[in-house]
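If you are new to this repository, start here. Below is one unmodified record pulled from the training split, so you can see the exact layout before writing a loader.
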Amino acid sequence: MKRELLAPAGGEKSARGALLAGANAVYLGLKEFSAREGAENFDVPALERTARFAHLLGARVYVCLNTLVKDDETARFFECARLAYIAGADGILLQDIFLGKALHAAYPQMELHLSTQAGCCNVHGALLAREYGFTRVVLARETPLAEIKKISEIIETEVFVQGALCTCFSGQCYLSSFAGNNSGNRGRCKQPCRKRYRIDRAGFEEYAYALSTSDLCVGERIGELLAAGVTSFKIEGRLRREEYVSAAVRYYRNLLDGKKADRTDLTRAFNRGDYTAGLAFGQEKDFLSRAVQGHIGERVGTVTISGGGYFCASAYVARKGDGFKILRASKEVGGASFLRAGKGGFFLASSLKLKSGDEVRLTTEANAGERIQPVCFKEISVQVRIVGGELPVARCDDFTFAGEEPVQFARSAPLTQEEIAACFGKAEEPLLPHVSVQTENAFLPKSALNAFRRAFYAAFIAHVLPAREELPVAEFSAERIPAGGKKKAVITRNPDGADADIVIYKPRDLKTIQLPKRGKEKYLWLPPLFAERDEQLIADVIGQFDGIYAEGSYGVKLAQKYGVSLFAGAGFNLTNRFAVAGVRAAGAKYYVLSKELSRTEQHALNDDGAFALQGGGISVMELCYCPFGKTCNACDKRDEYLLTDEEGRKFPLVRYRASEGCRFEVYNCVPLSCESDCSPLYDFTVLGQSGNATTGHANRSML
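And here is the target side for that same chain:
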């Protein structure tokens, strides 16, 4: 079975380091439409260089155009995809499944991968992706292992095995957007989940990193993903240093190759919370890193007060330039640095007043870069013949290259085999040539010999890596259908009590769904993470509703399966006319435009069946885990809590139950109250909010 180790590349240096460390592929972003806008990212020439480097090693390059694309940006989006393909991209990652469908229709030769931001987590989403021309889905990090196996039988799967975890379900986080107009769906997340909060529940009243997840490290459990049929094993980290990326690649390369794998370098390079295997394997005790935010490093010892100094007894040989983080009672209290060596350990310098027993963790290793040794080169055999009176010739495999003019006869000191071999040993990285030489009575100036070498290697690379076909500029269009009559819809916990044309029933527990009475149109709300076990809960009652209101594109196939209408929820993230035309063509009777569009942008997309969120509580995060550590026996089982940040803002934290237990939604600290030119969709799922209101992005689009 094909298996691929996929590494992040924030810039050219990281890309080369990852490939030389043993990655089978790298993924990177262009300067536009990258979900990691803060990374160095690539222009087209840099992409061309990186693609050539990768292809010489037999590796692949995937380009991320995986942000939400606004309507006035679609032409540029399609052009970026075309240019990326011509420059050597082996695959294009994108979030918008409907833009992908349009892209595939125009350029079927492009390989398309559906980004994790699209939230694919079940077979219905996988079937839709395959139908629309995608060859691979990057699964939501919350996808259960059993679901991964089923999806892998339908389409290639790519699964995260290492790196930072988003606390919110993939593609459904709007907290950064609503808190500061920095949209995570646009690559500008300010990570409010990494800040401190307190919760009004016993044991959680003190400020802590209540939503900050530990870093993912699947480690040896990668074997279970292999057994499930996963194709590509992905390392997160386009914002991480080259040392981290190389260490992660070496660790997983050894695991995949069945060799002994040491996690030391990886832990020292970056480690938030001492790792979790992730939600694919079920929530673990250490899924959240409540006490420490950021790099926690590797534990190397504890502090002892000795001779008036701070001594750390440790087997680790510390040196100048090393940095340390100090923990006390599992909480970060500050930092320290190497002062001097001691017997059986080392002394620390710190502006803090350290105490005996403080935990010392190595977070910066001065010589980390020295251990990054390339292990993957392209070894080639080169035969060079330079004989007086003949054309110079160089060969590699089936490729032969000859110079344009005969070699001069040597009058005194002819070229030696050693000189020619040394010259041709200077190949472009990652080529590693083994050179054999034939020469006789030959003379070439050094400049001419170097020019012949450069011309040979350039021609050889052009031979083994022919230029991509030149794709024509395609015409893209999307059908518009004028808006019909205006209706009002309400999302509510009560399937019968709302005053609206359309009622969307949002149950607190998928196991105890109230059946609606006859009358108004009734839709059953379904969450972003929707596994087969969740489907089993609603299969017998779904026919009692007019349709489903689904928070993910899986709803297209699910509605078709049960023969009910589809109301495409805000989780579809519809931001352009191709997405609107696409969801309508997919059978959606109604659909909600993105929460992050302005009123003007919504009006431009106000086709038949369009709705816009307009009032009530607005969900900004979907948590598919228990923020209380799944301590079920001690749980007070309340439906609602308040999550309070250090500025005093209170965000409702609302529980609902699905097949595997509790999930939670975080609502904005103030309710939504605005008017739109689209049909209104009032979300009254959080009734307890009071005080000021926000117009959201109605007057201020996501930047």
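Two things worth knowing about this chain: Residues 326 and 360 are 5 Å apart (CA to CA). The mean pLDDT is 93.
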